[in-house]
Structures are given as structure tokens and as C-alpha cells.
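Appendix B, record 7
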Amino acid sequence: MNDRRKFCRRLLGITTAFAAGAWADVASPQAAAECRIQLAEPCQRIDGFGASGAFRQAGILRRYPPHERARMLDLLFSPTQGAGLSWVRNLIGDGGAWGSRRNGPTPSIEPSAGAWNWQGDDDQIWLMRAAARRGCTRFFSSAWSPPAWMKTNQNVIGGELRRDAYAAYAKYLARYVEGYRRHHGLVIAALSPQNEPDVHVHYSSCHWTAEQYHTFMRDALQPTFQRARIQTRLVLGEHSTWSEAVVRPTLEDATTAAGVDVVASHAYAGNNHAPKIPLTDRTGRFALALRLSKPVWQTEVSAFNANDPSMADGLYWAKLVHYHLAEDQVSGWFYWWLASPGLNREALILLDPASGGWLANKRLFTLGQYSRFLQPGAIRLAATRNPAPGVLTSAWRMAGANGRLAVVAINENPAPVRLRFRLLPKASAATGAIAAWRTSFMEEIQPLPPVEAAQKNTEGWMAELRPISITTFVSGN
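C-alpha cells (predicted):
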């Protein structure tokens, strides 16, 4: 057996006993539960789904043999062969000296005042271009730290942005957007001035208070972007735990609130080395942002305990996506790394560069049950969110001229569940074939036979949800 196969089998850790238990025959319930979908009640617009190649992880992926690399990129970004992710999240380089070739910072575009540099970010640029060839053309960049020369401690690790450097940093961010378009032909669609302003860590970081955010937006960032006529969406927040508190003063000022295009946060919580942190610790509505009609994005989440490639882990993250989108009205959702060699849950694809092996975790495919079908512009529709115990459902009007209906259904029960999908009002019900794709213990966004005519009627359709699975149904007009 070659090294790659050994690597994959070692990581999967799937036993025959578990497989037998997962697929034990259980009689279906006699009565069907019902998910009622309100076609005339639109909710939030979806901006898309993504993950990152930051801190040199893009370079590790880039060094794989071309055929293996292409397969992984297809699984991540292809809307027909993979998860169809619509965003790549990048690190804005700060020139720090910490880390290693496998995990470290990238050069700054302004290593000293007035000295501009457009070299050294080849791997992230390669990743954006590779993603674009597969249909992912939206790029979101976050700063982990301003350049050291702008900071109170003259270091990219810790410290704060000097008050007298606010204007210089705003110009730096504007030049980043302009420079990547001019020098690399890449449009940065969204930008965050600070990743996790609340943390004190041993890598690139910078502390900001909510009041400092407000002052920087009012006096520097907002007017600088307006003068330069930069259309990039400004993403503010990115607190390490699920909170909008750091953005509140900016949103409470009508002038600065107008400059905030997206309110963002990460969804880490408690001891992130724990196998399964309660999802209630990662969720909740951002009342102020939603009242002001600001899109809310979850821009980073993962876990640091030993990697779990299983369907159980896949459903854990799928449920988090469901709660964020269907309960918290989140519009954009990002996992942390796209692909990484760390033997934990930080990446969608686990790499083993020494053997040339890699493993696509089930969480990639359960996320793909949303991201492949809910491309930017999709609209969530009001629908029954919990039609039966252990079942979560959400409904969407897909982007595009056809306006097809997509319904995502999670069944975490060890038994199948019969579910009726009822479209209301009846007169507006979608017609045509109902296609379906499923991820389960043995399937990965697997196309299923279309719903038979006998199971379908003018106001909806009936389906049986496989145990421990997530299924996406698509109905066209």
C-alpha cells in the first residue's frame, strides 16, 4: 500500500462496526413531518461561502503535483465537481519575521514609510487565479497587523496602531486594493482592517478597542476610501468570538455606519481544543447590525483538536451553517483554511506533503451542500426550520434568471425521516423536475435520482431523508 493510502486510512479511522451501526435498517415513521416554505416571504440575501490560504498554506497546496493540486482545487471551488466556494479570504501581508515556511507571514506592501513593494505574495495570488478559473472570482482580504513601523511597539505581534499613523494605515489599505488591481489584475471585493482585534497571541495581531475602531473609521478609513473612489466593501469587526460589540460605536454613529458595508465576526468559543463546543456558544443574532440592514458575515471558524474527517464532524459544521444562516440571518460564511497539513480541524482538506497524500474531510462536502447551490445573490425564504426532531431545513431562491428553489435538509437521526415539503402559496408553487444531491457516510454531494412524478404534486413534494445525512433539493420553474 502506498504512503498516500496509508495516510488516508490512518486519518479516516472508520471501523466496520461503526459502518454497520450507521446503516442498520430502521423502519420509516408512518407519518411524514412537514416543512412549509413561504415563497412570498424573502429574508436575507446570501453573499457566499469561502475559506483561506493565508499564512503560506496556499504555497503548500501549490507545491503538490499538478494533477493532485487540480483535483483539490476542483473539490474546493468547482460548482459541478466540488463545493463551489465563492470566496477566497486572504492575509494582507505585514512583513513579520515570526513563523516558518509552512506557517508564517508574507511581505508588506509598505515595509517602511513611502517604500512600496508588490512582490512576495505569489502563493496567495496563484490561489486567487486558480480559484477564478473555477468560477470563484470574489476575494476578501483581512489585515492581521499593520506594518510594524506604524505600531506602538514597532512589532507586528501585539501592540496598537499609533494614533498619528491612522491616516498612513488608511492609505496603506487603499493602496493595497489599488495595487492588486493594477499590478496583479485582481479585484479585492471586500477588505477588513483588522482580524480579531481582541486577541493577544504570539503571531501577527493588533489590539483595537471599539472606540478606536470608530475613530479610525471616522477620521481616516472612510474619508480615504471615499476620496480614492474605492468600491471595495469595508468589513468591520472580526472579533474572535461571536459578537458585534467591537462595531457598536461605529454603527451608532450615522455617519460612520454609512461606511460599514458588512459587520463580521468569527465563531470561536470557549476551549477551542474541545471536540464539540456547543453551537449555542457560537451563535446569536446581531441585533444592531440587522436593525441597520447591514449584512452579517461569519468570517472564520474551525477547531484545534485532532482532525475528525467523519460524517459526525461534517454534520456539526453543517448545523452551525444552518443556525447562522436560518436563525441568525448571516449572509456570508467562511471556514478557516482551505487546505493545510495541521493534524487538527482547521482545514477543509488535510494535507500530508511528505507522502503526497491528502484527505478531503466530510465538512468540505457538508458545507458544499450549501455553498455549491447558494451562490451569491440567493435569497433565503421563510420556512419551517425544525420540522421534526433531529431535522433542520432551510429554503432558498437561487441566484440567476430562473430563480430556482433550493431546500437544504439535515437529518442527524440514526433512522430515516419522511418529510413533506409544502410550497405556499400554492398558486406560486415551483414546477418541474426536483433534483437532489446528498452527503452521507458513503456519499459526497452525490446526485440522486429525481423525485418521481408520483411523489410530487403542484404544491410540493415528499422525500425520505437518509439517516445521518444532508440533502439539497433543487426545483426549477
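Remarks on this record: The first strand starts at residue 33 and ends at 45. Residues 1-29 have pLDDT under 50 and may be disordered.
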